[in-house]
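hi! just following up on the protien thing from before. the input was this:
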Amino acid sequence: MTEALKVAVVDEVRSELEKVDSDPDNQSEEEVVDVSKFEIRADQQVSRPPSVLEIKEGQRPSIIASRGDISTGIGKAKSKKTFLVTLLVAVVLKGAIANIRGNLLSSKRRVLYFDTEMSNYHVYRVSQRIARLVNDDFTLHPEDITIFALRELRPDERVAVIKQEIEKSTD
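and the predicted 3d structure came back as:
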């Protein structure tokens, strides 16, 4: 990212924060949150969450994602982010591909896939790739995934749709 672009992004974020701060609807009494319950200490035991996605390396698998995680992919343009996400989604839906294993409970197999950058056609192609990896047939859409192409929406509308669909989801 160029320095000029970084400055532009910072200025845009600053401008949006100022709008939020000056909006009377956002003005409320300061709520004090007890943050002690969020503190993690090395001398206290924390149980390992159930993994949803892991890579087998030797005897011990490395966890990529745990139940309840919300993951996003960030990287340079054309760095194969979509390819990686497509593979990981297919693994979760299918159960395993190569040495990558997905561990969804049979009652919690729903995947919500939101794309905010690609055209409908390219998201459609991603859906075909996932179907081919899961079913060996790109014409059969996997029943446990809902895919959304949100590029045409404004950023605030995208956030609203994503929040709505996550809250609606029972899985």
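The radius of gyration is 20 Å.
The longest strand covers residues 51-57.
cheers
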